[in-house]
Predict the 3D structure of the following.
Amino acid sequence: MNYKAFVDEQVASIQASVGNHLAINALSGGVDSSVVTVLGHRAVGDRLKTVFVENGLMRRGEPERVVHLFSGMGIPVRLVDAKKEFLGALRGLTDPEEKRNAITRTFYSTVFGKLVRETGAKYLFHGTILTDIEETVAGIKRQHNILAQIGIDPEKEYGYQVLEPLKTLRKDGVREVANILGLPPEISGRIPFPGPALATRIVGEVTEERIATVREATSIVEEELENTGAFQYMAVLLGDKATGMIQGRREFGQIIVVRCIHSVDARAATPVELPWDKLKRICERITAIKGVNRCLYDLTPKPPATIEYI
Ligand code: XMP
C-alpha cells in the first residue's frame, strides 16, 4: 500500500466530510488515536477538538505524558476527568462483555454525549482499525470502539456521526502512517494498549484497589520488558486467589499473570521465550506488591487464547 497517498486521501476525505463543522476526538496516546489526532488536525486544524478522557483506568503518569507530548507538537489536548463515571458504571460487574459494554456506554453516551453538547461538535473521529472490526463482526470480542458494524447508529443514539479514517489498516499499517506523519518513535513504536485500558487487565470486578494493583504490576512489566522488541506485554490481575506466605503468615492473596507476545497484527500471537533470569526478577518485583503472592507467565498462543483476558 502507498501510505503517503493514504494520508493525502484521508486528509481530503476528512475535509470533505467535516466541512465547516466542529469535530472532536479522544486521544489515549496509543498509536491509533495519535494518528487520528494528527490526521484530523492536518485536515481541519483547530476545528478538531482533542480530549484525553481520564477514565481512572490508565497507566501511571499516562494522562500528563500524553497532554505534554501533543502540546509539544502544537496540538492542544483537553484533559476531561471522568473517573467517577467509569468506576461507577463498572461497579459490581464481573462479566467481560458487560464490563466492555459499560465502558462503551459511559464513553460514547455519558462522557462524549456531554462533550458534544458542550462543544457543538458534529463529528467524532475514531481510531478503529480493521482488526477491531473483523473480531467484533466475527463475534470473538466486542471491541469498545465498534458501533456501526454492530448496528448502533451513533447519530440516533448519541447525536453525532463517527468517522473512522484508519478502518482499512491493520496495526503495522498504522505504524507506517505514524512515521509518515512524523510522530515520534515513542508513539509510532508504542505497544498496543486497549481502549478499555486496565479494565481489560482485571478479571472480575474493577475496583480502585484492584486497579492500583494492576497499575503497579503494569509499570514493572513495561519497565522490565521494554527492550524485548515484543509486540505487546502486560500484567493481568486474576479473579481467583491463592494461598501464600507473607512474613511467615498464611495469606489468601492475589495472582498476577505476565503475558509477553510476538505478533504482526494481533490476529495471531506466540509467547516470547523470555530468559529465566528476567522472569525471576519480574516475579520477585511483582510479588513484592502488597496483597500479591503469585506471579505466573502465560505460555498460551493466540489462538486458542486472545491477547487480553477479557
Ligand atoms: P485480543 O485480546 O482480542 O486483542 O486478542 C487483539 C489486540 O487488540 C487489543 N484490544 C483492544 N484494543 N479496544 C482496543 O482499542 C479494545 O476493546 C481492545 N480489546 C483488545 C489488544 O490489546 C491486542 O493488541
